[in-house]
């Protein structure tokens, strides 16, 4: 059906002009133009508008952010929709609603075109599973020319973002022609999936091709990410020199931030400081990188000072900034500073961030204010994610409320929130410290059998500690023997504590010998063995352990107490 063929060429042209003017001037006219389209003379003769008009209208609604109206107009005039209409709507929905975008792509059936395939690939790259990318790939094989670099680059990117780098590489290798964007998609894909060696090799290939595949800020920042994760500061310095030659060292902020991140993660503080001082333009990511670096190196006061400097420089903090600043104030036990950051979070509207919400709970908990941690939790309980639930469970557990922590875990399951491996560490620790052996067994089984989480040494250590505290030393030893992985220091340390609790000197000696080999500098193991000897009246052996510690110049760490006074927590 065509309005033009029915003699309404002039009216069609007028409507198209109006739609295009609205798109480039005032998109709020979309609803008025939609109404004009419906009541137009041509609309009276035909129940649905011309496909070009429908496509323009859908695009106009999408540009205004009114996706529901765009979808409503599309559904109301579905018979008029062609492949461009589908492409416009799928493209608009790709990022905010990738699942819905993919469903519309599937509805298009025989209307697939390169434009529609590209839009669907954008949806796949927004978080859909690899199966979706494979379905779009199958359609692309029929609808797209093999030499269409744009679509095939989109396939490389979609597979990479879905975590299927084998498929991504296969598409890349099968491309008759490749552009710089194709190489960048592969390189960034390897870096994103922590395949650092492969990312560096792709960068080497690109550099070897010279002007045929010019290096740009995407390729340089991508390989710097790989160097950061691999800890390969040597190659990172070579990339730095390359970036300087290309004028990207300080000319592209994403490259400057990548260099800064690489140097801080590799422990090169001097180079990082020189680069930071040389940067004329610093965005929020720049500041976040250096603040996170301070926290990794336990320089919490400096992290807080940098956060304050960022605010003074007029850079608006984001959710990462607030979460890291709260983490620093928690480690400093500064409730006053944390509370002031909390006030800024409320003012700027970042309380909706999952990371910020969980950091607030952790901060108040570590500063000894469990009531305020609960208030922070309850303030966002309607939209809590696994991070916030885990933070609250951990807060209760670490403040000696293990039974309440277990109750909170049960509420989390009732809300349908799937726990992660950190959640199970906290709940198993709660069971351990409160003698809840049967519940601990059930939760461990729930973790492995239902949620399919592979136990880490932390989970194993919690279980061994739980059996030991309950006096089930034999079961603790059997549990270790059935682990399937070699026990590390945390697991053996829990077993040594169990030997102390169950007064089993023979097993304690065996376990201690293993621990002295694994971590010879841990004074806690020596002290524990000496105490076990002393509890059995073997004072000479206990003295020998203490003499051996002195010979190795090992000193028992002093205990500390936390004192809360005038909203300030101090360590004594």
TrEMBL record:
PPR repeats: 179-213, 283-317, 385-419, 522-556
UniProt key word Repeat: yes
UniProt keyword annotation of Ribosomal protein present: no
Alphabetically ordered keywords of this record: Repeat, Transit peptide
InterPro entries: E_motif, PPR_At4g14850-like_plant, PPR_rpt, TPR-like_helical_dom_sf
PROSITE patterns hit by this protein: PPR
Protein name: Pentatricopeptide repeat-containing protein
Superkingdom classification of source: Eukaryota
